[in-house]
């Protein structure tokens, strides 16, 4: 029952997290597009009001005419919409999902004893420290270098180095799947912290100054804009890290930290193309196509690098029958299934046996092993996902034994 309720919690939290993330990222992408597409106002009345840019757009059968006041409008409207709950809801739901999926079962999903054999409490504390330490270092970099000459380039380079270090540490300390998600959650935490500590407080200060009739300090808008731009470059790397848990060929690779860095770099480069393309159309900057080409080239190079070695095709046990099945079975000595059964008993029965059937799967009988041979082969030999984080210590020789058994037609007896 515990596993059943955890699955429901995982599903519902994931649902909420995806919905709120769509809302947050969508609004972020829209405002980056809006800023990049604004043109100086042509109407003299708008100029007198202090409008710095305007845009005409058509959508859903209507025409829209948003304008931007660079510092402050002549007067505050009665109703002012704030964009912050999208960010906060995304982080809260994401952290809750990370807690249910990884922290609650740290010994199973977070810890890989072949990397770091530490207690669950220690692993949890270190994982949470990634969120705090990354934010503090990132924030310090922005404070120290953000307002200097070439500050954006310096901050970008230093943050990239910081992300590389964090990725290397996470992939060497935690299970691969958890490491990728941890890095993504770490960056997403910094994104939400930007909203909480900088963007919204700066906007509140500006509004307070307007209401008090005081001159508005433009530094608050500049700082908020800087952190908002950082967030838009973080989005594609974070999305990749979050999606990667479904694709074991990324995080199970021996150099998984490099895979993560390359794919996040590619995402940021491609995002740069989309950020600059609207300005390019208006003649404000050069052609951003090289950024997209670099991002695509990195992805293609990574795909080629990770391609699996060619193997001879084998027949699935489900379709081996008749004389072919007899020949296949005879290729494996009758005692081989006893060896396979011993491996399954030692490595798999505790989660897929009589007492516990995770994912409603049992392999504790010859008939069940035969029935699920394809899944066993895929999970144990091909992707090496099971046992989860190799918690039961299965060896490469035992994986190879199961592979030979499957390729011979998954025989279960003499």
Q: DSSP helix count?
A: 17
Major β-sheet, in short? 2 strands, antiparallel
- Beta content comes to under 5%
Class computed from helices, strands and strand pairing: mainly alpha
Rg value: 27 Å
Q: Number of DSSP strands? A: 4
The dominant shape is elongated
Give the ordered list of helices and strands. HHEEEEHHHHHHHHHHHHHHH
Overall pLDDT, averaged? 87
User: Helical content, roughly?
Assistant: 55-70%
Main-sheet strand order equals: 1-4
**Poorly predicted parts:** 311-335
Q: How far apart lie the N and C ends?
A: 39 Å
A few lines on this structure:
The protein has 414 residues and is mainly α. Helix content is 67%, strand content 3%. A hairpin with a 2-residue loop joins strand 2 and strand 3 (62-64).
Question: What are the SSEs and their pairings?
Answer:
Blueprint: H1 2-37, H2 44-49, E1 51-54, E2 57-59, E3 62-64, E4 67-69, H3 85-103, H4 106-110, H5 120-145, H6 151-173, H7 176-211, H8 219-243, H9 248-251, H10 256-281, H11 289-306, H12 322-330, H13 335-347, H14 349-352, H15 366-371, H16 373-382, H17 396-407
Structure description:
This protein is mainly alpha-helical. The protein is elongated, with a radius of gyration of 27 Å. It has helices spanning 2-37, 44-49, 85-103, 106-110, 120-145, 151-173, 176-211, 219-243, 248-251, 256-281, 289-306, 322-330, 335-347, 349-352, 366-371, 373-382, 396-407, and strands at residues 51-54, 57-59, 62-64, 67-69. The longest helix has 36 residues, at 2-37. The protein starts with a helix and ends in a 7-residue tail after the last helix. Mean pLDDT is 87; it is low at 311-335. β2 (57-59) and β3 (62-64) form a beta hairpin. α5 packs antiparallel against α6. The strands form two sheets. Strands 1-4 form a two-stranded antiparallel sheet. Strands 2-3 form a two-stranded antiparallel ribbon. Helix content is 67%, strand content 3%.
